[in-house]
């Protein structure tokens, strides 16, 4: 079940935190994210993990206003968002002075790069500013378009897919100011340089250059971009995929952004030109075709058209003849008798020559990309900036990078599976396996640690541990497991060993031998299967079939010595810089005395080293997780593919994470935070200054009060050492609902007080003017009317909600959206001959039992900026007259409209000079219409069906005009009758059901009203009319005798017909007496003039005493709050000290483990080198020897994870 919970603020779609799902299942997770996706809510939590669903459309949820909502806010107090994760990481880094990292994972196209950019934007926005600091931020942010241009490409799943992984690190001082940074790249897909897949593109930069340089003819001519080599279609490395454009992407504009980004990271104009030149050289290189040629009875090759090679070599600054020779011939050596080394060249067939050409292109592009990373890091390097500039510009330059806090953002492309998966997909998926293992160890294990630390009993949740897959891929040496079984070496080690033993053979032979070895060693592995010339691995994300073709050549990675030496002699400074490992002379001195395949690390070994270094760095940080999901594979907005999303939910392990996060308890929170949120529930903890106990004691008091309305809470809640745990989400929702109910009562009270305070000054000004008016006309004042505090809304609190709702409903019926100025009950004096007398009116008539000709009817007066409404509380009797014959009225709104008067219809206000509560509104009477007004009636023929129910009119469905709206309805919804004096219907006529209670049923005439708030009503009424009439004031007259102007239709008149005479009595009660000729209103005694001054003086003294008391209470609350915060800060610092001590112990143990591992590894490497020269049988025999298990993640990493699990030996 996925609930939709309503609060006083807004409706929650699904649940913000899936820990609160009542049904813990993958189907429930799917339903929740689908429900939120339909409402464009793409962020959801699972505890501390943020789940993001890619909507494939832009949402306006990343602007500055949205950022401000999350600054200094705790995660549970704001809706899920990537800004919330960013805020948590940044604040924890500052408060706990601990390294933080945000790990973003998910499939390709799931939105990882966009999440990374939004995190960077948020950190850059909220961190402190300064001249040097802003430069760091600029470089940090501007590196994105540069890296995207050179490292991103269009794939079948993502138009801007990152084809490399990156780990951004920002270094902060103690004030939270960024002082430097570093970018580390991983797994650049170099093969895309030469063979992008069908319907995909090469890296963006190639298309940007070709389209961005069209206007620069001089430079393009220099680059050889003219004639038939200037469009993407003209280059083999680009046209092989038959895809050149991306919908909605302007490569020319993006080229300008890339050039600006290069400048922002500090690259000079000449450097930028050399980078562009190198990229164009790669394109020309790809156009070099080779044709077969017999050389000394051997199959050789020659270039078909030399122009592309010549142009390429010119741009690279190397000799074209030497380059062609290195493509078509391979240097080889043999050992002659006497130890003499003989060298000769072996012709290469067209396939081999093309492979050497492609190898050169990949190596150059890979090193060019590393160069750009280096330039970014150079611009972000704090120490370099301190050396180059005056240190006064960098107040914190004395800090070293390793002494600063750092915040890292890992954005690495996710698990991949294509129709054909090669070595690069193998490496990518391996790294994702490692990250999944880290997630399992840190996140799921941390849940278990928390329960143990808090002393809460729970049942461990089983989950798939992918360590067995990591063992299959990267186990380094045969080791003995605890069960006594021998663990075989991983696939990487087998591939490296195969290359070492067959270094002189072609790649196809290496691939075949490698597959045979892997299949023989791992034939019984549950996650490995051989499929012909391929093999399958069952990853945590699913089964992937890998094609072994190219594994050997790709893993070698190194450039042939002759091509390498050629590049070192280049006249191009950038090319020489990209290949600096050794000088040409040293390379020649090395000659061939030592096989180069022994010196060059393989791509697989580099990836293992990089991944372990990354894991070590991440484990030094407190992790935050962002798990990205794709809503569909078609990259379409507003589309949700249940099957694809469910698959991702499974392989990302969201259900396991949810189960462990729940572990029997849907909610856990620190006592302090729980008490701050829910203290309002208990009178013993709220207001907060009355409670002086501990946070835990306060939480217990709150739950004890809540348990009165939630009986099962006693069994559902458990108290840990520092946290409260609640078992089910329904119970938490009940507590929240209880809090909302209590809060609602306070909110209503505060709103009333605020409205009173807000209008108080305005009211006092107007009241002063009325007081002068009263004094000028010698009007006697009532005691209760002097210095009465203004409220504006005098309704009883228990009736406020439903009555206000009904008032707004009537106003909406007429489209009146103006502000309500005043609401209160008044008494209307009416003649007893009125046909409509309700039970409540009869009850009120007892007040004037001595007056037989009139009675008092309670009415609700609502004053807006344009109208005043006279409403009546309804009853069954009052509405009987509104039904047609033999039809009982079922429509009984709590308030019925009696009059709606535009303020301009009021011609004056009459008051007496006595202390009575009466006032008379002089309203221009309605004229009598000879014929009803039917100008708004629709023609019968224009409507063929009921405008409410949709029923078609016919013999059994008759038409009826609603006399008020003029619309046509069927009999079912037009049974009620009502008088409509304003339209000339003086007897009841048919109206639509919706009109009942919303039509003015009384004619306009003078009205005699009674209210103790007479002065307030007169004040606001007169001021509203003045504003509406552009400054023209309404006359306010004082008369003690008046004859009311009543309605022209005497049967519909609701005002007294007789003369009204005001006088005074000797008592304090109001009296009404009279007959059919006159109505005498005897006012109570008033108060003397000096009473007002004395009363104001007493009220002022009372206010001063009240304010002094409130100030004392505020001081007590502030003191108590300061003490609470001090205690919590002390506890937080103590927790940080313990955590840091534990981390320091882990680091020391890790260092000791590393030193031991290095010693062991050194001896094992020597042993392996000897084994590498043995035959395949001897190799298979050696790997069967029983040795200790590494756990599949490297000995050092295994030791770290063992310590994390608490079971290190």
TrEMBL record:
Pfam families: FYVE, Myosin_head, Myosin_TH1. SMART domains: FYVE (SM00064), MYSc (SM00242). Residues 1152-1167 have a biased composition (Low complexity). Residues 779-1085 form the TH1 domain. Residues 611-633 are annotated as: Actin-binding. Residues 1083-1126, 1139-1209 are annotated as: Disordered. Residues 1094-1103 have a biased composition (Basic residues). One of its GO terms (cellular component) is cytoplasm. Residues 1104-1126, 1168-1183 have a biased composition (Basic and acidic residues). GO terms for molecular function: actin filament binding; ATP binding; microfilament motor activity; zinc ion binding. ATP binds at residues 106-113. GO terms for biological process: actin filament organization; endocytosis. Residues 940-1000 form the FYVE-type domain. InterPro entries: Kinesin_motor_dom_sf (IPR036961), Myosin_head_motor_dom-like (IPR001609), Myosin_TH1 (IPR010926), P-loop_NTPase (IPR027417), Znf_FYVE (IPR000306), Znf_FYVE-rel (IPR017455), Znf_FYVE_PHD (IPR011011), Znf_RING/FYVE/PHD (IPR013083). Residues 13-740 form the Myosin motor domain. Keywords: Actin-binding, ATP-binding, Metal-binding, Motor protein, Myosin, Nucleotide-binding, Zinc, Zinc-finger. Belongs to the TRAFAC class myosin-kinesin ATPase superfamily. Myosin family. This is Myosin IB heavy chain putative. The lineage of its organism: Eukaryota, Sar, Stramenopiles, Oomycota, Peronosporomycetes.
